[in-house]
Protein backbone atom coordinates (compact mmCIF):
# COMPACT_ATOMS: atom_id res chain seq x y z
CA UNK A 1 0.00 0.00 0.00
CA UNK A 2 2.64 2.52 1.07
CA UNK A 3 4.79 1.39 -1.84
CA UNK A 4 2.13 2.48 -4.31
CA UNK A 5 1.67 5.77 -2.51
CA UNK A 6 5.37 6.43 -2.82
CA UNK A 7 5.28 5.77 -6.56
CA UNK A 8 2.30 8.08 -7.02
CA UNK A 9 3.94 10.84 -5.01
CA UNK A 10 7.14 10.47 -6.97
CA UNK A 11 5.33 10.64 -10.31
CA UNK A 12 3.27 13.66 -9.29
CA UNK A 13 6.45 15.38 -8.15
CA UNK A 14 8.01 14.82 -11.55
CA UNK A 15 4.88 16.03 -13.30
CA UNK A 16 4.69 19.25 -11.28
CA UNK A 17 8.40 19.86 -11.68
CA UNK A 18 8.00 19.36 -15.41
CA UNK A 19 5.13 21.80 -15.66
CA UNK A 20 7.12 24.52 -13.93
CA UNK A 21 8.88 25.16 -17.20
CA UNK A 22 10.73 28.34 -17.58
CA UNK A 23 8.11 30.73 -18.82
CA UNK A 24 9.71 34.05 -19.62
CA UNK A 25 9.06 36.23 -16.65
CA UNK A 26 8.56 39.95 -16.86
CA UNK A 27 11.95 40.45 -15.22
CA UNK A 28 13.66 38.59 -18.05
CA UNK A 29 11.66 40.54 -20.60
CA UNK A 30 12.70 43.85 -19.03
CA UNK A 31 16.35 42.85 -19.00
CA UNK A 32 16.28 41.63 -22.61
CA UNK A 33 14.62 44.81 -23.79
CA UNK A 34 17.47 46.94 -22.49
CA UNK A 35 19.57 45.69 -25.37
CA UNK A 36 17.01 45.94 -28.13
CA UNK A 37 16.94 48.65 -30.74
CA UNK A 38 14.28 51.27 -30.70
CA UNK A 39 13.14 50.58 -27.15
CA UNK A 40 12.85 53.33 -24.59
CA UNK A 41 13.92 52.04 -21.21
CA UNK A 42 13.76 53.87 -17.91
CA UNK A 43 14.98 52.61 -14.59
CA UNK A 44 14.37 54.70 -11.47
CA UNK A 45 15.51 53.39 -8.10
CA UNK A 46 13.74 54.89 -5.11
CA UNK A 47 17.05 56.01 -3.68
CA UNK A 48 16.61 58.84 -6.18
CA UNK A 49 14.11 60.30 -3.75
CA UNK A 50 16.57 61.70 -1.28
CA UNK A 51 14.86 62.55 1.94
CA UNK A 52 16.01 64.59 4.86
CA UNK A 53 16.49 61.84 7.39
CA UNK A 54 15.33 63.97 10.33
CA UNK A 55 11.91 64.49 8.76
CA UNK A 56 10.96 60.87 8.35
CA UNK A 57 9.63 58.47 10.93
CA UNK A 58 10.72 54.86 11.12
CA UNK A 59 7.42 53.78 9.63
CA UNK A 60 7.89 55.96 6.60
CA UNK A 61 11.45 54.72 6.21
CA UNK A 62 10.33 51.12 6.32
CA UNK A 63 7.57 51.80 3.80
CA UNK A 64 9.99 53.52 1.46
CA UNK A 65 12.42 50.65 1.80
CA UNK A 66 9.72 48.24 0.67
CA UNK A 67 9.69 49.98 -2.73
CA UNK A 68 12.74 49.22 -4.81
CA UNK A 69 12.34 50.80 -8.19
CA UNK A 70 10.31 51.55 -11.27
CA UNK A 71 11.11 50.05 -14.66
CA UNK A 72 9.57 51.27 -17.86
CA UNK A 73 10.05 49.65 -21.25
CA UNK A 74 8.30 51.03 -24.30
CA UNK A 75 8.41 50.65 -28.04
CA UNK A 76 6.88 53.49 -30.00
CA UNK A 77 4.97 52.50 -33.14
CA UNK A 78 6.94 54.82 -35.36
CA UNK A 79 9.95 52.57 -34.89
CA UNK A 80 8.26 49.51 -36.27
CA UNK A 81 4.58 48.54 -36.25
CA UNK A 82 5.37 44.86 -36.75
CA UNK A 83 7.82 44.82 -33.88
CA UNK A 84 5.16 46.40 -31.67
CA UNK A 85 2.77 43.58 -32.47
CA UNK A 86 5.41 41.00 -31.65
CA UNK A 87 6.22 42.63 -28.33
CA UNK A 88 2.54 42.93 -27.50
CA UNK A 89 2.03 39.22 -28.09
CA UNK A 90 5.12 38.39 -26.02
CA UNK A 91 3.94 40.46 -23.09
CA UNK A 92 0.38 39.14 -23.29
CA UNK A 93 1.79 35.64 -23.19
CA UNK A 94 3.98 36.40 -20.17
CA UNK A 95 0.98 37.59 -18.20
CA UNK A 96 -1.26 34.80 -19.37
CA UNK A 97 1.14 31.93 -18.73
CA UNK A 98 2.57 33.04 -15.42
CA UNK A 99 0.03 32.49 -12.70
CA UNK A 100 1.77 34.85 -10.34
CA UNK A 101 0.54 37.84 -12.34
CA UNK A 102 -2.97 38.62 -11.16
CA UNK A 103 -5.19 41.04 -13.00
CA UNK A 104 -6.32 44.08 -11.12
CA UNK A 105 -8.14 45.92 -13.85
CA UNK A 106 -8.44 46.29 -17.59
CA UNK A 107 -9.39 49.31 -19.60
CA UNK A 108 -9.87 50.16 -23.20
CA UNK A 109 -10.60 53.75 -24.05
CA UNK A 110 -10.50 55.01 -27.62
CA UNK A 111 -8.55 51.96 -28.76
CA UNK A 112 -5.92 52.43 -26.03
CA UNK A 113 -5.63 49.24 -23.98
CA UNK A 114 -4.29 49.19 -20.43
CA UNK A 115 -4.08 46.18 -18.14
CA UNK A 116 -2.92 46.43 -14.56
CA UNK A 117 -1.46 43.38 -12.82
CA UNK A 118 0.13 42.67 -9.48
CA UNK A 119 2.11 39.91 -7.81
CA UNK A 120 1.99 38.97 -4.18
CA UNK A 121 -1.03 39.83 -2.10
CA UNK A 122 -3.16 42.96 -2.02
CA UNK A 123 -1.78 43.95 1.36
CA UNK A 124 1.69 42.73 0.56
CA UNK A 125 2.48 43.60 -3.04
CA UNK A 126 5.69 42.66 -4.74
CA UNK A 127 5.08 44.14 -8.15
CA UNK A 128 2.47 46.42 -9.65
CA UNK A 129 2.51 46.37 -13.42
CA UNK A 130 0.80 48.48 -16.05
CA UNK A 131 0.80 47.06 -19.56
CA UNK A 132 -0.49 49.26 -22.33
CA UNK A 133 -0.74 49.27 -26.09
CA UNK A 134 -2.46 51.08 -28.90
CA UNK A 135 -2.31 50.46 -32.61
CA UNK A 136 -0.33 53.24 -34.15
CA UNK A 137 1.04 54.45 -30.82
CA UNK A 138 3.12 51.54 -29.56
CA UNK A 139 3.40 49.14 -26.68
CA UNK A 140 4.84 49.56 -23.22
CA UNK A 141 5.04 48.12 -19.76
CA UNK A 142 5.79 49.85 -16.47
CA UNK A 143 6.59 47.96 -13.31
CA UNK A 144 6.84 49.10 -9.73
CA UNK A 145 9.08 46.61 -7.97
CA UNK A 146 9.28 46.18 -4.23
CA UNK A 147 8.79 43.63 -1.52
CA UNK A 148 5.67 43.29 0.60
CA UNK A 149 4.49 46.77 -0.27
CA UNK A 150 1.46 47.80 1.70
CA UNK A 151 -0.70 50.19 -0.34
CA UNK A 152 -2.32 51.83 2.67
CA UNK A 153 1.09 52.59 4.18
CA UNK A 154 2.35 53.92 0.89
CA UNK A 155 -0.55 56.33 0.49
CA UNK A 156 -0.09 57.51 4.07
CA UNK A 157 3.60 57.96 3.40
CA UNK A 158 2.96 60.01 0.27
CA UNK A 159 0.68 62.27 2.24
CA UNK A 160 3.28 62.80 4.95
CA UNK A 161 6.29 63.20 2.73
CA UNK A 162 7.63 66.55 1.71
CA UNK A 163 10.22 66.12 -0.95
CA UNK A 164 12.63 68.99 -0.84
CA UNK A 165 13.16 69.80 -4.50
CA UNK A 166 16.43 71.57 -3.80
CA UNK A 167 17.90 68.33 -2.63
CA UNK A 168 16.98 66.28 -5.65
CA UNK A 169 20.10 65.06 -7.29
CA UNK A 170 19.60 66.06 -10.90
CA UNK A 171 22.71 64.36 -12.20
CA UNK A 172 21.37 61.04 -11.06
CA UNK A 173 18.14 61.90 -12.77
CA UNK A 174 19.62 62.42 -16.25
CA UNK A 175 21.68 59.26 -15.98
CA UNK A 176 18.62 57.01 -15.78
CA UNK A 177 17.46 57.79 -19.30
CA UNK A 178 19.22 55.47 -21.69
CA UNK A 179 19.18 55.72 -25.49
CA UNK B 1 -24.56 9.48 -4.43
CA UNK B 2 -21.61 11.70 -3.49
CA UNK B 3 -19.92 10.82 -6.73
CA UNK B 4 -22.87 11.88 -8.87
CA UNK B 5 -23.08 15.18 -7.02
CA UNK B 6 -19.39 15.82 -7.53
CA UNK B 7 -19.70 14.91 -11.18
CA UNK B 8 -22.61 17.30 -11.62
CA UNK B 9 -20.61 20.07 -9.96
CA UNK B 10 -17.68 19.51 -12.27
CA UNK B 11 -19.93 19.60 -15.30
CA UNK B 12 -21.87 22.70 -14.36
CA UNK B 13 -18.98 24.88 -13.16
CA UNK B 14 -17.55 25.46 -16.64
CA UNK B 15 -20.98 26.51 -17.88
CA UNK B 16 -21.28 29.09 -15.14
CA UNK B 17 -17.77 30.35 -15.78
CA UNK B 18 -18.22 30.83 -19.50
CA UNK B 19 -21.45 32.72 -18.95
CA UNK B 20 -19.60 35.32 -16.92
CA UNK B 21 -17.13 35.85 -19.70
CA UNK B 22 -19.84 36.25 -22.33
CA UNK B 23 -19.02 39.90 -22.77
CA UNK B 24 -15.28 39.40 -23.07
CA UNK B 25 -15.59 39.00 -26.83
CA UNK B 26 -16.49 42.70 -26.93
CA UNK B 27 -13.02 43.58 -25.79
CA UNK B 28 -11.51 42.78 -29.16
CA UNK B 29 -14.00 44.72 -31.25
CA UNK B 30 -13.10 48.13 -32.56
CA UNK B 31 -15.22 50.97 -31.36
CA UNK B 32 -15.72 49.46 -27.91
CA UNK B 33 -14.63 51.23 -24.75
CA UNK B 34 -14.31 49.01 -21.73
CA UNK B 35 -13.52 49.03 -18.04
CA UNK B 36 -13.19 45.84 -16.02
CA UNK B 37 -12.41 45.97 -12.33
CA UNK B 38 -11.74 42.78 -10.41
CA UNK B 39 -12.35 41.85 -6.79
CA UNK B 40 -8.70 42.37 -5.93
CA UNK B 41 -8.97 45.93 -7.13
CA UNK B 42 -12.00 46.57 -4.92
CA UNK B 43 -10.11 45.03 -2.01
CA UNK B 44 -7.23 47.36 -2.73
CA UNK B 45 -9.47 50.42 -2.91
CA UNK B 46 -11.12 49.49 0.36
CA UNK B 47 -7.71 49.76 2.02
CA UNK B 48 -7.59 53.44 1.16
CA UNK B 49 -10.52 54.27 3.41
CA UNK B 50 -8.97 57.31 4.99
CA UNK B 51 -7.73 58.81 1.76
CA UNK B 52 -9.69 61.19 -0.44
CA UNK B 53 -10.03 59.80 -3.91
CA UNK B 54 -11.34 61.75 -6.86
CA UNK B 55 -15.01 61.16 -7.15
CA UNK B 56 -15.79 59.24 -10.28
CA UNK B 57 -18.50 56.87 -11.34
CA UNK B 58 -16.43 53.85 -10.36
CA UNK B 59 -16.06 55.05 -6.80
CA UNK B 60 -19.78 55.92 -6.55
CA UNK B 61 -20.66 52.46 -7.72
CA UNK B 62 -18.29 50.91 -5.20
CA UNK B 63 -19.58 52.95 -2.33
CA UNK B 64 -23.17 51.98 -3.09
CA UNK B 65 -22.45 48.32 -3.17
CA UNK B 66 -20.94 46.05 -0.55
CA UNK B 67 -19.07 42.85 -1.33
CA UNK B 68 -18.69 43.57 -5.00
CA UNK B 69 -16.79 40.93 -6.91
CA UNK B 70 -16.60 42.43 -10.33
CA UNK B 71 -17.50 45.50 -12.33
CA UNK B 72 -17.59 45.51 -16.10
CA UNK B 73 -18.61 48.28 -18.41
CA UNK B 74 -18.68 48.28 -22.20
CA UNK B 75 -19.78 51.15 -24.37
CA UNK B 76 -19.88 51.95 -28.05
CA UNK B 77 -20.94 54.60 -30.52
CA UNK B 78 -20.99 52.13 -33.37
CA UNK B 79 -24.46 51.00 -34.40
CA UNK B 80 -23.31 47.54 -35.47
CA UNK B 81 -21.51 46.90 -32.20
CA UNK B 82 -24.54 48.20 -30.32
CA UNK B 83 -26.64 45.54 -32.01
CA UNK B 84 -24.11 42.87 -31.05
CA UNK B 85 -24.21 44.12 -27.49
CA UNK B 86 -27.98 43.76 -27.48
CA UNK B 87 -27.67 40.17 -28.59
CA UNK B 88 -25.05 39.41 -25.94
CA UNK B 89 -27.28 40.94 -23.28
CA UNK B 90 -30.18 38.73 -24.35
CA UNK B 91 -27.95 35.66 -24.31
CA UNK B 92 -26.67 36.58 -20.88
CA UNK B 93 -30.20 37.01 -19.56
CA UNK B 94 -31.10 33.51 -20.68
CA UNK B 95 -27.84 31.97 -19.54
CA UNK B 96 -27.86 33.50 -16.10
CA UNK B 97 -31.62 33.33 -15.58
CA UNK B 98 -31.86 37.02 -14.95
CA UNK B 99 -35.12 38.75 -14.20
CA UNK B 100 -36.10 42.24 -15.25
CA UNK B 101 -36.00 44.76 -12.44
CA UNK B 102 -36.99 47.92 -14.26
CA UNK B 103 -37.31 49.63 -17.59
CA UNK B 104 -36.86 53.29 -18.30
CA UNK B 105 -37.68 54.98 -21.55
CA UNK B 106 -37.28 58.51 -22.76
CA UNK B 107 -36.97 60.30 -26.12
CA UNK B 108 -33.50 59.12 -26.96
CA UNK B 109 -32.76 56.13 -24.80
CA UNK B 110 -33.99 52.88 -23.41
CA UNK B 111 -32.60 51.54 -20.15
CA UNK B 112 -33.26 48.03 -18.98
CA UNK B 113 -32.01 46.62 -15.72
CA UNK B 114 -31.88 42.90 -15.01
CA UNK B 115 -30.89 41.13 -11.83
CA UNK B 116 -30.18 37.69 -10.49
CA UNK B 117 -32.18 37.24 -7.34
CA UNK B 118 -30.96 35.54 -4.19
CA UNK B 119 -32.72 34.13 -1.15
CA UNK B 120 -32.41 37.51 0.55
CA UNK B 121 -35.04 39.82 -0.92
CA UNK B 122 -32.94 42.94 -0.57
CA UNK B 123 -29.89 41.59 -2.32
CA UNK B 124 -29.08 40.31 -5.76
CA UNK B 125 -25.96 38.54 -6.89
CA UNK B 126 -25.79 40.09 -10.32
CA UNK B 127 -26.95 43.27 -12.01
CA UNK B 128 -26.98 43.76 -15.75
CA UNK B 129 -27.84 47.16 -17.09
CA UNK B 130 -28.25 47.85 -20.78
CA UNK B 131 -28.63 51.36 -22.10
CA UNK B 132 -29.57 51.86 -25.74
CA UNK B 133 -29.28 55.26 -27.32
CA UNK B 134 -31.36 55.93 -30.37
CA UNK B 135 -30.47 58.29 -33.15
CA UNK B 136 -32.91 61.22 -33.22
CA UNK B 137 -33.74 60.94 -36.88
CA UNK B 138 -33.32 57.26 -37.55
CA UNK B 139 -34.82 56.03 -34.28
CA UNK B 140 -32.47 53.09 -34.60
CA UNK B 141 -29.87 51.97 -32.09
CA UNK B 142 -26.83 54.18 -32.46
CA UNK B 143 -25.00 53.66 -29.21
CA UNK B 144 -25.07 51.33 -26.28
CA UNK B 145 -23.69 50.78 -22.80
CA UNK B 146 -23.55 47.54 -20.85
CA UNK B 147 -22.85 47.60 -17.14
CA UNK B 148 -22.41 44.32 -15.32
CA UNK B 149 -21.98 43.98 -11.58
CA UNK B 150 -21.34 40.77 -9.76
CA UNK B 151 -21.34 40.48 -6.02
CA UNK B 152 -23.80 41.09 -3.20
CA UNK B 153 -25.80 44.09 -4.31
CA UNK B 154 -28.51 46.03 -2.51
CA UNK B 155 -31.49 46.37 -4.84
CA UNK B 156 -32.55 49.64 -3.33
CA UNK B 157 -29.35 51.28 -4.47
CA UNK B 158 -29.71 50.25 -8.09
CA UNK B 159 -32.00 53.10 -9.08
CA UNK B 160 -29.35 55.51 -7.84
CA UNK B 161 -26.94 53.72 -10.13
CA UNK B 162 -29.25 54.16 -13.11
CA UNK B 163 -29.20 57.90 -12.54
CA UNK B 164 -25.43 58.15 -12.90
CA UNK B 165 -25.71 56.85 -16.45
Task: Give descriptors for this structure.
heterodimer; A: 179 residues; alpha+beta; 7-stranded antiparallel beta sheet; 6 helices; 39% helix; B: 165 residues; 6-stranded antiparallel beta sheet; globular
The gist of it:
The complex is a heterodimer of chains A (179) and B (165). Chain A has 179 residues and is α+β, with helices and mostly antiparallel strands. Helices cover 39% and strands 33% of the residues of chain A.
Q: Biggest sheet of chain A, in brief?
A: 7 strands, antiparallel
Structural class of chain B: alpha+beta
Query: Quaternary arrangement of the chains shown?
Result: heterodimer
Per the principal axes of the C-alpha atoms, what is the gross shape of chain B?
A: globular
Q: How many helical stretches of chain B?
A: 5
Could you give the count of β-strands of chain A? 7
The total tally of domains of chain A equals: 1
Our estimate of the beta-strand percent of chain A is 25-35%
H and E string of chain A? HHEHEHEEEEHHE
Given the C-alpha coordinates, what overall shape of chain A results? flat
Helix percent of chain A reads 25-40%
